[in-house]
Automatic annotation (TrEMBL):
SUPFAM superfamilies: Carbon-nitrogen hydrolase (SSF56317). Residues 1-239 form the CN hydrolase domain. It comes from the Bacteria. This is Carbon-nitrogen family hydrolase. It comes from Streptomyces zingiberis. Keywords: Hydrolase.
Protein backbone atom coordinates (compact mmCIF):
# COMPACT_ATOMS: atom_id res chain seq x y z
CA UNK A 1 0.00 0.00 0.00
CA UNK A 2 1.43 3.35 -1.02
CA UNK A 3 0.70 6.16 1.45
CA UNK A 4 1.18 9.86 0.75
CA UNK A 5 1.05 12.46 3.53
CA UNK A 6 0.31 16.06 2.50
CA UNK A 7 1.96 18.40 5.01
CA UNK A 8 -0.16 21.46 4.26
CA UNK A 9 1.05 24.95 5.13
CA UNK A 10 -1.68 26.83 7.01
CA UNK A 11 -1.11 30.58 7.04
CA UNK A 12 -3.50 33.51 7.64
CA UNK A 13 -2.65 35.08 4.26
CA UNK A 14 -4.70 32.38 2.52
CA UNK A 15 -8.48 32.24 3.00
CA UNK A 16 -10.22 29.05 4.04
CA UNK A 17 -11.93 28.89 0.65
CA UNK A 18 -8.64 29.32 -1.22
CA UNK A 19 -6.95 26.66 0.89
CA UNK A 20 -9.83 24.23 0.43
CA UNK A 21 -9.60 24.60 -3.35
CA UNK A 22 -5.82 24.31 -3.35
CA UNK A 23 -5.76 21.21 -1.15
CA UNK A 24 -8.45 19.48 -3.20
CA UNK A 25 -6.30 20.08 -6.29
CA UNK A 26 -3.28 18.55 -4.52
CA UNK A 27 -5.32 15.47 -3.62
CA UNK A 28 -6.40 15.04 -7.23
CA UNK A 29 -2.70 14.85 -8.18
CA UNK A 30 -2.07 11.84 -5.90
CA UNK A 31 -3.45 9.12 -8.17
CA UNK A 32 -0.27 7.06 -7.75
CA UNK A 33 -1.09 6.58 -4.04
CA UNK A 34 -3.50 4.15 -2.41
CA UNK A 35 -4.03 6.24 0.72
CA UNK A 36 -3.66 10.02 1.05
CA UNK A 37 -3.60 11.75 4.44
CA UNK A 38 -4.19 15.42 5.32
CA UNK A 39 -3.42 17.22 8.63
CA UNK A 40 -5.67 18.21 11.50
CA UNK A 41 -8.02 21.19 11.00
CA UNK A 42 -6.16 22.33 7.90
CA UNK A 43 -9.07 24.49 6.64
CA UNK A 44 -8.81 26.87 9.61
CA UNK A 45 -5.71 25.88 11.56
CA UNK A 46 -5.80 23.99 14.85
CA UNK A 47 -4.98 27.11 16.90
CA UNK A 48 -7.10 29.62 14.98
CA UNK A 49 -9.85 29.44 17.59
CA UNK A 50 -11.46 32.66 16.35
CA UNK A 51 -12.34 30.88 13.08
CA UNK A 52 -13.95 27.78 14.56
CA UNK A 53 -17.49 29.14 14.88
CA UNK A 54 -17.40 30.93 11.52
CA UNK A 55 -16.19 27.91 9.55
CA UNK A 56 -17.86 25.09 11.45
CA UNK A 57 -19.78 22.87 9.07
CA UNK A 58 -21.91 19.72 9.03
CA UNK A 59 -20.22 16.45 8.26
CA UNK A 60 -21.38 16.68 4.64
CA UNK A 61 -20.37 20.36 4.35
CA UNK A 62 -18.17 22.16 1.81
CA UNK A 63 -14.92 20.54 2.91
CA UNK A 64 -16.33 17.05 2.56
CA UNK A 65 -17.86 17.96 -0.80
CA UNK A 66 -14.51 19.19 -2.14
CA UNK A 67 -12.56 16.23 -0.75
CA UNK A 68 -15.12 13.69 -1.93
CA UNK A 69 -14.78 14.88 -5.50
CA UNK A 70 -10.98 14.95 -5.20
CA UNK A 71 -10.77 11.40 -3.79
CA UNK A 72 -13.02 10.08 -6.53
CA UNK A 73 -11.07 12.00 -9.16
CA UNK A 74 -7.78 10.44 -8.03
CA UNK A 75 -9.39 7.08 -7.16
CA UNK A 76 -7.71 7.02 -3.74
CA UNK A 77 -8.64 6.41 -0.15
CA UNK A 78 -8.46 9.78 1.57
CA UNK A 79 -8.12 10.59 5.24
CA UNK A 80 -9.27 14.19 4.99
CA UNK A 81 -7.51 15.37 8.13
CA UNK A 82 -10.17 16.96 10.31
CA UNK A 83 -12.75 19.74 10.21
CA UNK A 84 -14.72 21.71 12.77
CA UNK A 85 -17.99 19.81 12.71
CA UNK A 86 -21.17 21.51 13.96
CA UNK A 87 -24.15 19.46 15.14
CA UNK A 88 -27.71 20.77 14.84
CA UNK A 89 -27.66 21.62 18.56
CA UNK A 90 -24.60 23.83 18.01
CA UNK A 91 -22.02 21.49 19.57
CA UNK A 92 -18.63 21.58 17.84
CA UNK A 93 -16.35 18.59 17.32
CA UNK A 94 -12.89 18.07 15.85
CA UNK A 95 -13.93 15.42 13.34
CA UNK A 96 -11.85 13.34 10.95
CA UNK A 97 -13.40 12.07 7.72
CA UNK A 98 -12.25 9.01 5.76
CA UNK A 99 -13.45 8.91 2.16
CA UNK A 100 -13.32 5.98 -0.22
CA UNK A 101 -12.19 6.02 -3.87
CA UNK A 102 -15.85 6.30 -4.84
CA UNK A 103 -16.16 9.58 -2.94
CA UNK A 104 -18.34 8.06 -0.21
CA UNK A 105 -17.78 8.68 3.50
CA UNK A 106 -16.46 5.44 5.00
CA UNK A 107 -15.65 6.51 8.58
CA UNK A 108 -15.71 9.52 10.88
CA UNK A 109 -13.82 9.97 14.14
CA UNK A 110 -14.42 12.70 16.73
CA UNK A 111 -11.23 13.54 18.61
CA UNK A 112 -11.36 12.12 22.11
CA UNK A 113 -8.60 14.08 23.85
CA UNK A 114 -9.05 17.84 23.36
CA UNK A 115 -6.05 20.06 23.88
CA UNK A 116 -5.99 23.31 25.85
CA UNK A 117 -6.25 22.56 29.58
CA UNK A 118 -9.74 24.10 29.90
CA UNK A 119 -9.05 26.68 27.20
CA UNK A 120 -9.18 26.73 23.40
CA UNK A 121 -10.23 23.44 21.84
CA UNK A 122 -10.86 21.85 25.25
CA UNK A 123 -13.38 24.56 26.12
CA UNK A 124 -14.96 25.04 22.69
CA UNK A 125 -15.46 21.45 21.49
CA UNK A 126 -17.13 18.29 22.61
CA UNK A 127 -15.06 15.15 23.04
CA UNK A 128 -15.48 11.96 21.07
CA UNK A 129 -16.63 8.89 22.95
CA UNK A 130 -15.48 5.97 20.83
CA UNK A 131 -12.31 4.62 19.23
CA UNK A 132 -12.75 4.14 15.49
CA UNK A 133 -11.18 1.78 12.98
CA UNK A 134 -11.82 1.59 9.25
CA UNK A 135 -11.27 -1.37 6.96
CA UNK A 136 -9.07 -0.54 3.98
CA UNK A 137 -8.59 -2.99 1.08
CA UNK A 138 -5.41 -4.52 2.54
CA UNK A 139 -5.50 -3.66 6.24
CA UNK A 140 -7.37 -2.08 9.14
CA UNK A 141 -6.55 1.49 10.10
CA UNK A 142 -7.02 3.01 13.54
CA UNK A 143 -7.91 6.69 13.74
CA UNK A 144 -6.52 9.22 16.22
CA UNK A 145 -5.85 12.96 16.17
CA UNK A 146 -2.93 15.08 17.44
CA UNK A 147 -3.17 15.29 21.26
CA UNK A 148 -4.47 11.69 21.30
CA UNK A 149 -0.84 10.75 20.61
CA UNK A 150 0.00 11.38 24.27
CA UNK A 151 -2.45 8.70 25.47
CA UNK A 152 -1.05 5.24 24.66
CA UNK A 153 -4.10 3.43 26.01
CA UNK A 154 -6.14 4.68 23.04
CA UNK A 155 -3.67 3.15 20.61
CA UNK A 156 -3.67 -0.14 22.50
CA UNK A 157 -7.47 -0.19 22.21
CA UNK A 158 -7.13 0.37 18.47
CA UNK A 159 -4.60 -2.47 18.28
CA UNK A 160 -7.00 -4.75 20.13
CA UNK A 161 -9.67 -3.74 17.60
CA UNK A 162 -7.46 -5.00 14.77
CA UNK A 163 -5.57 -1.88 13.69
CA UNK A 164 -2.28 -2.44 11.87
CA UNK A 165 -1.86 1.16 10.72
CA UNK A 166 -2.50 4.29 12.79
CA UNK A 167 -3.50 7.41 10.85
CA UNK A 168 -2.77 10.53 12.88
CA UNK A 169 -3.46 14.04 11.55
CA UNK A 170 -2.12 16.84 13.73
CA UNK A 171 -1.56 20.55 14.21
CA UNK A 172 1.38 20.11 16.61
CA UNK A 173 3.35 23.18 17.79
CA UNK A 174 6.98 23.59 16.74
CA UNK A 175 8.09 24.19 20.33
CA UNK A 176 7.22 20.56 21.14
CA UNK A 177 8.46 19.07 17.87
CA UNK A 178 10.69 16.53 19.62
CA UNK A 179 7.68 15.15 21.47
CA UNK A 180 5.81 14.82 18.16
CA UNK A 181 8.49 12.76 16.45
CA UNK A 182 9.36 10.73 19.55
CA UNK A 183 5.79 9.79 20.43
CA UNK A 184 4.95 8.89 16.83
CA UNK A 185 7.77 6.36 16.88
CA UNK A 186 6.83 5.15 20.36
CA UNK A 187 3.25 4.35 19.33
CA UNK A 188 4.64 2.37 16.38
CA UNK A 189 7.12 0.40 18.51
CA UNK A 190 4.81 -0.45 21.39
CA UNK A 191 1.97 -1.61 19.11
CA UNK A 192 4.14 -3.00 16.30
CA UNK A 193 2.13 -1.04 13.77
CA UNK A 194 2.67 1.54 11.05
CA UNK A 195 2.12 5.18 12.04
CA UNK A 196 1.17 7.79 9.45
CA UNK A 197 1.64 11.06 11.34
CA UNK A 198 0.66 14.09 9.23
CA UNK A 199 1.20 17.55 10.69
CA UNK A 200 0.62 21.06 9.38
CA UNK A 201 3.33 23.53 8.44
CA UNK A 202 3.25 27.33 8.64
CA UNK A 203 1.95 29.53 11.45
CA UNK A 204 -1.66 30.06 12.44
CA UNK A 205 -3.25 31.50 15.55
CA UNK A 206 0.23 32.83 16.31
CA UNK A 207 1.54 29.27 16.77
CA UNK A 208 4.35 27.98 14.57
CA UNK A 209 3.69 24.41 13.47
CA UNK A 210 6.04 21.48 13.91
CA UNK A 211 5.87 20.00 10.42
CA UNK A 212 8.09 16.88 10.31
CA UNK A 213 5.31 14.54 9.27
CA UNK A 214 6.49 10.94 9.48
CA UNK A 215 5.77 7.48 8.14
CA UNK A 216 7.03 4.98 10.73
CA UNK A 217 7.19 1.20 10.34
CA UNK A 218 6.29 -1.44 12.99
CA UNK A 219 9.90 -1.59 14.23
CA UNK A 220 10.02 2.16 14.77
CA UNK A 221 12.09 2.94 11.68
CA UNK A 222 11.22 6.20 9.93
CA UNK A 223 10.51 5.44 6.28
CA UNK A 224 9.91 9.07 5.29
CA UNK A 225 10.01 12.40 7.13
CA UNK A 226 9.14 15.90 6.00
CA UNK A 227 10.94 19.10 6.90
CA UNK A 228 9.35 22.25 8.28
CA UNK A 229 7.59 23.62 5.19
CA UNK A 230 4.79 22.38 2.97
CA UNK A 231 5.79 19.00 1.58
CA UNK A 232 4.45 15.66 0.39
CA UNK A 233 6.07 12.47 1.65
CA UNK A 234 5.36 8.99 0.31
CA UNK A 235 6.29 5.45 1.31
CA UNK A 236 5.27 1.94 0.31
CA UNK A 237 3.97 -0.01 3.31
CA UNK A 238 4.71 -3.74 3.37
CA UNK A 239 1.66 -4.69 5.41
CA UNK A 240 2.91 -8.24 5.93
CA UNK A 241 5.61 -6.72 8.15
CA UNK A 242 3.03 -6.06 10.87
CA UNK A 243 2.18 -9.74 11.34
CA UNK A 244 5.82 -10.75 10.91
CA UNK A 245 7.04 -8.25 13.53
CA UNK A 246 4.36 -9.35 15.98
CA UNK A 247 5.24 -13.01 15.40
CA UNK A 248 9.02 -12.61 15.52
CA UNK A 249 8.96 -10.42 18.64
CA UNK A 250 5.65 -11.34 20.33
CA UNK A 251 5.64 -8.67 23.00
CA UNK A 252 1.88 -8.06 22.72
CA UNK A 253 1.08 -11.55 23.99
CA UNK A 254 3.04 -10.90 27.22
CA UNK A 255 0.79 -8.13 28.47
CA UNK A 256 -0.38 -8.67 32.03
CA UNK A 257 -3.73 -7.02 32.64
CA UNK A 258 -5.72 -6.37 35.80
CA UNK A 259 -2.81 -6.44 38.23
CA UNK A 260 -4.17 -5.22 41.60
CA UNK A 261 -2.63 -2.14 43.15
CA UNK A 262 -1.00 -2.01 46.56
CA UNK A 263 -0.19 0.87 48.89
CA UNK A 264 3.01 0.65 50.93
Amino acid sequence: MRASLLQISVNPGETVEERRERVAALVREQSAADLVVLPELWPTGAFAYDLFEEYAEPRNGPTFTALSAAAAGASVWLHGGSVVERLPDGTLYNTSLVIGPDGELRAAYRKIHRFGFDRGEAAMMGGGEAVVTVRLPETTAGLATCYDLRFPEQFRQLTDAGAEVFVLPAGWPARRREHWTLLSRARAVENQAYVLACCTAGTHGGVEQAGHSQIVDPWGEVLAEAGEGEEIITADLDLARVAKTRADFPVLRDRVLGVPGRVG
